[in-house]
Amino acid sequence: LAGGIILGVALWLRHDSQTTNILYLQLGDKQAPNTFYVGIYILIAVGAVMMFVGFLGCYGAIQESQCLLGTFFTCLVILFACEVAAGIWGFVNKDQIAKDVKQFYDQAFQQALLAESDASNGKAVVKTFHETLDCCGPDNAIGAITPLWRDDLCPKKDSFLKNIIESSNCHKKIDELFSGKLYLIGIAAIVVAVIMIFEMILSMVLCCGIRNSSVY
Predict the structure, then answer these.
(1) Residues 147/154, Cβ–Cβ less than 8 Å
(2) Per-residue pLDDT of the chain (216 residues; tens, 9 = 90+)
(3) Considering 36, 73, 161, 213, which has the largest number of Cβ atoms within 10 A of its Cβ?
(4) Which cysteine pairs make disulfide bonds (predicted)?
(5) DSSP labels, 58-121
């Protein structure tokens, strides 16, 4: 059940409309940075393997098989080590993920402002960012002034005053988007780690109990 929950959360994060709209963008020959998906794929793999390993442990307990319970314990140790490694990687790269996406947005924004024709797809990339995140411009100043000369790049508001007041800078929105998603991944990883620790303890207790009872 825990494996199924983790798998479900990971698949939801993987197919979330905001992240997919942004991370599937392409600016000329350059693809949007999708390092974020590495953590998601690790969660998907852990969830799927946990479901299989959980079945193995359950079957081993029913059959009172020391071999199956030992295999279950070994698989849990390997999964736990992989999760710790993934957690360390995520902690090290948590700021870099948002930074790479912001750099990609800034490049597209510059191209959109400088492009004299639709030959560059910078305008399409910027509009996707603006519509998905409901923002405009890389910072507050540019975000408020941009609609004055490039109203085609920003989400339409009912009035000019409302446009200036409600326009949020996209750097802030990108930070909020990925920090929120990484926060969910972190919670899921901690829950899995706690469950795994209990599983390892209980499987060894059960295995030792079976071994001792078989003596008599």
Answers:
(1) yes
(2) 778 887 888 888 888 888 888 888 877 777 888 777 877 888 788 888 888 888 888 888 888 888 888 888 888 888 888 777 777 777 777 778 888 888 888 888 888 777 655 556 788 888 888 888 888 777 755 555 555 445 667 766 554 555 555 557 888 888 888 877 777 777 777 887 888 888 888 888 888 888 777 544
(3) 36
(4) 135-170, 136-154
(5) HHHHHHT-HHHHHHHHHHHHHHHHHHHHHHHHHHHHHHHHHHHHHHHHHHHHHHHHH-SSTTST
